[in-house]
Amino acid sequence: MKLLDDEQKQKTAMDLLDQYLQFVQEGEQDIKKKSKKEKDPLKPKHPISAFLVYANERRAALREENKNVVEVAKMTGEEWKKLSDKEKAPYEEVAKKNKETYLQAMEEYKRTKEEEAMSQKKEEEELLKLHKQEALQLLKKKEKTDNLIKKEKETKKKKNENVDPNKPKKPASSFILFSKDVRKALTEERPGTSNSTVTALISVKWKELGEEEKQSYNNKAAKLMEAYKKELEDYNKKSAAATTSS
Fold it and tell me: Where along the sequence do coiled-coil regions lie (predicted)?
């Protein structure tokens, strides 16, 4: 996101985005290739040969004679070899018609698949465009947010620069006073612990603190606030007097 400082870096960001989207697309294509290995139940079945048409016709009769599968296959094979061309002709005609029906069905199947593939490709292209548009919007939104944060920091910095160093600072709250007391001990007990974790532990300890102990910190904070208000009142009087004289 930090690649939005100038036009060249923005171009680099978009190139990286294109690479990412291409990576996603290739991943989706790999999934599709794996799914293609599964048989399509709608795909027309390959027609059987003339011999299998004959074998299917003979199978029922041979099975009635208590012949097993191996015997049936062997016998039908031998019988088929002994048939004349004239005897084979009806079975070959059936196989020929089945093949013609199959080829017609395959043409229709291929046409349907091509239409589905084209439709899917169009959807993927539209989705890719949408992803790019969304990514661009996010990049622009991030750039806008960064600019706002930058301006806010600059404004805050200027504001702090204009603050009178002699003006009394607001005192710490009861929780901050407690935090100062226990932070050092926690840091020594848990060396290497991050500041955020230590702060979280301090918050837990503050919640678990008894009412009496917590009240002592509240009293300290209240005294500091009274002293602050008095100092601020004196400061405001002096500031007003200095403004009047000038």
Answer: 207-245
Token pair for residue 183?
């932070």
* pLDDT single digits (tens) 150-197: 888 887 777 666 677 788 888 989 989 998 888 888 888 888 878 878
* DSSP per-residue letters across the chain: -GGGSSHHHHHHHHHHHHHHHHHHHHHHHHHHHHHHTSPPTTSPPPPPPHHHHHHHHHHHHHHHTT--HHHHHHHHHHHHHHS-HHHHHHHHHHHHHHHHHHHHHHHHHHHHHHHHHHHHHHHHHHHHHHHHHHHHHHHHHHHHHHHHHHHHHHHHHHHHHTS-TTSPPPPPPHHHHHHHHHHHHHHHHSTT--HHHHHHHHHHHHHHS-HHHHHHHHHHHHHHHHHHHHHHHHHHHHHHHHHHH-
How far apart CA 172 and CA 153 sit, in angstroms, is 23
Q: What is the Cα–Cα distance from 190 to 4, expressed in whole angstroms?
A: 40
CA-to-CA distance for 238 and 200, rounded, in angstroms?
Answer: 42
Band of the pLDDT at 1, cuts 50, 70, 90? very low
